[in-house]
Design a protein that fits this description.
Elements: H1 3-29, H2 34-43, H3 50-63, H4 68-71, H5 80-105, E1 109-110, E2 113-114, H6 116-126, H7 133-161, H8 166-196, H9 205-232, H10 237-264, H11 267-270, H12 276-280, H13 285-293, H14 296-305, H15 313-325, H16 328-347, H17 354-369
Antiparallel strand pairs: 1-2
GO molecular function: metal ion binding; prenyltransferase activity
Family: Belongs to the FPP/GGPP synthase family.
Keywords: Magnesium, Metal-binding, Transferase
Length: about 375
């Protein structure tokens, strides 16, 4: 089995162990709280584990091993349990962010299945509860996201306790804390941008959208996991700088690809309806570039339709074609390539282990061309 495959298995095992330990706690509260654990388990069963992978390779890039594949031969070796636990905690944090993001965006699906708040909404209907099913679903979704945040911090702290070097543990905790502030502020910046876009100064739309994706996604998807992992291994200033120079542009490329998939992705692959970002009214870099290039009449049409929850398939197709004709897709693809190149350039001659540089290079390529 490849290093990546073994890592994913170990992270999943740690997640399962953690949830198994918390099932009796939920059951002791009441039978009604058991679904919190069941939905969490379903939600955490899937995913590409990018954050876990980057955390591991951030650690491996400064720690090193003769052969990373052999390093997994004994999963109890050295600081590896702490690293695996931290990687699993990052996946719990990511799950919390997705639950809250789906609530904010009023998304019906996630990974081809009902989003968490929609599952709770259906449970309300099935149980013939009193009150508004939609409100019940949203309230329950908030609490599930909060619970996953609590669990993420609990698992992170427990994992740091297993780390031999307390200075490294404190450094990793500082990176984790900063990540949580950045992504929460970035999420708020996103909803402000969507609500205030008519007041954004002409010519600033792209910069505003780039700032949103930097803090909402790019930093916490790649740069922060790398920095957390590297801190676990006692990274030097030069090593940390190289990883940040790699991680930030790659994170931007990651989200730019996500923006394209949100408009043009295959629903069978992405697990989201076609054109979902158009229905949700996302003010992405793609949309900002299209608006800049479109004539006034076409821009007005985009502004009127974007974010309409009742968009028909025909209107979605029309918006997709309008954006395509503006040349915005080509420009976003150019930006993706440019940022991936910047990331790879940062690895050239970086004071990191050779195996990690190879693995990070492969991850960069897979992120830039992914279809989901």
């Amino acid at each position: 089995m490849s290093t990546g495959g073994r890592l994913v298995d170990l992270v999943q095992n740690r997640i399962d162990e953690f949830l198994d330990a918390h099932d009796p706690i939920l059951a002791a509260v009441a039978d009604e709280t058991v679904p919190l654990g069941e939905i969490s388990r379903d939600f955490l069963r899937f995913g590409k584990r990018f954050r876990a992978r980057f955390a591991y390779w951030g650690w491996q890039s400064v720690q090193g091993a003769d052969d990373p594949a052999d390093f997994f031969g004994d999963a109890r070796r050295g600081d590896l349990p702490a690293v695996i636990g931290v990687a699993a905690a990052l996946e719990l944090f990511h799950a919390a962010a997705l639950v809250h993001d789906d609530l904010i965006d009023a998304s019906d699906t996630r990974r081809g299945a009902p989003s968490a708040h929609r599952r709770f909404e259906q449970a309300h209907r099935d149980g013939r509860f009193l009150g508004d099913p939609k409100r019940f679903g949203e309230s329950s979704g908030v609490l599930l996201g909060d619970l996953l945040l609590v669990w993420s911090d609990e698992l992170f702290a427990d994992s740091l306790d297993r780390l031999a070097d307390r200075g490294n543990a404190r450094a990793a905790r500082a990176e984790f804390n900063r990540m949580r502030t950045d992504v929460t502020a970035g999420q708020y910046l996103d909803i402000v941008a969507e609500a205030s876009w008519p007041h954004v100064r002409e010519g600033r739309e792209v910069d505003t959208a780039l700032n949103v994706i930097t803090y909402k996604s790019a930093k916490y998807s790649i740069e922060a996991p790398l920095a957390i992992g590297a801190s676990l291994g006692g990274a030097s200033l030069a090593q940390m700088a190289a990883l940040r120079e790699f991680g930030l542009p790659l994170g931007i490329a990651f989200q730019l690809r996500d923006d394209l998939l949100g408009v043009y992705g295959d629903s069978e692959v992405t697990g989201k309806p076609a054109g979902d970002d158009l229905v949700e009214g996302k003010r992405t870099v793609l949309i900002a570039l299209a608006r800049q290039a479109l004539p006034q009449s076409a821009r007005r049409t985009v502004d009127e339709l974007l974010g309409d929850p009742e968009l028909t398939p025909e209107q979605i197709a029309m918006l997709q074609e309008t954006i395509r004709a503006s040349g915005a897709i080509d420009e976003v693809e150019r930006m993706i390539t440019e940022n991936v190149d910047l990331a790879l350039d940062a690895l050239d001659g970086a004071p990191l282990t050779g195996d990690a540089i190879d693995a990070l290079s492969r991850l960069a390529e897979s992120i830039s061309v992914r279809s989901s």
